[in-house]
Amino acid sequence: GNLCRCTGYHNIVKAILDAYEGHPRYTLWRNNTGQVRRGKRVIRFGKVGSADITGIMDGGRRGEIECKKVGGKTSKERIENQQKFADMIRKHGGLYVVAFSLDDVKLILG
User: Fold this and answer.
1) What is the largest CA-CA distance in the chain?
2) Which residues contact 28 (CB under 8 A, 6 or more apart)?
3) Which of 17, 30, 59, 66 lies at 20 to 30 Å from 52 by C-alpha?
4) pLDDT 10s digit of each residue in the chain, 110 long?
5) Cα angle 102-106-109, degrees, rounded to a multiple of 5
6) How far apart are CA 102 and CA 12, in angstroms?
7) Do 6 and 15 contact (CB within 8 A), yes or no?
8) Residues near 8 by beta carbon (within 8 Å), at least 6 away in sequence
């Protein structure tokens, strides 16, 4: 297959979602997390530390893909939260992948 030369974070997420759209063995979707301020109220959504892409594989196994930009900077707190989430997913038999490109995902998912 073609090698993906995606470098930007959003390009990596999009490349992975596009490549696996309609795949017979995996259903993947974007997992948004963060917060929004509405006046004085702060509304938080998503699980702290959760991956950028989530999904389900044949047999019901959960899959998570955390996308990273090569050379990108991540706070110590975020790294710790992401590691806790990865540990939880793996503890329960799920698959957790850190991807710097579509090729990283293809090596694991095919």
Assistant:
1) 50
2) 16, 17, 20, 53, 54, 55, 63, 65
3) 59
4) 444 555 577 899 999 999 999 999 999 999 988 889 999 999 998 898 999 999 999 999 999 999 998 887 888 998 999 999 999 999 999 999 999 999 999 999 98
5) 130
6) 6
7) yes
8) 69
